Amino acid sequence: MNISISYSEILNFVENKFKVRPMLQKKTASALVISYKPAALLPTMSVDIAVDGIDGDAVLLSYDCNKAMSLMVAGVVAYLEEKIPTAVDVDTTARKIKLNLDKIDKLEAVLEYMALSDIAFADNEVIAKIQVL
């Protein structure tokens, strides 16, 4: 079974929740470019996010960016360390992120009956492939 969510839905959620509207662009079927221009005189900041795989109930991601952006990410992660959910493991040195879906309370019941098998990026949407157990 495939579940898809459009980039515009994701962007609307981010804008409503955080009052910023980044841009999303497919790079490859497994990679996405997230960019944001904070102000007219500041350069656009961007991060490439890649899905490295699915390991059981964990989504393995990596990110690539320039050195300045990498330092910003590391600083934000260090500053927000207490607020980052336990389901998210961020290794800023290796530029890896592990999303432990089984540690997300709202997904606990769903994961008893379904398993995520793949995540792919299309031109205008993210597609999650789900297997019924």
Quick synopsis:
This protein is α+β, with helices and mostly antiparallel strands and 133 residues long.
Fold and architecture overview:
This protein is 19% helix and 45% strand. With 133 residues, the chain is an alpha+beta fold. The chain has one domain. Strand 8 and strand 9 (125-132) form a beta hairpin.
Kindly list the characteristics that best describe this protein:
45% strand, 6-stranded antiparallel sheet, globular, 2 helices, alpha+beta, 9 strands, 133 residues, single chain, 19% helix, 3-stranded antiparallel sheet
The shape, in one word, is globular
Strand order of the largest sheet: 2-3-4-5-7-6
Low-confidence stretches: none
Radius of gyration: 16 Å
Topology of this structure?
Elements: E1 2-6, H1 7-18, E2 23-28, E3 31-36, E4 45-55, E5 58-64, H2 67-79, E6 88-91, E7 96-100, E8 114-121, E9 125-132
Antiparallel strand pairs: 1-9, 2-3, 3-4, 4-5, 5-7, 6-7, 8-9
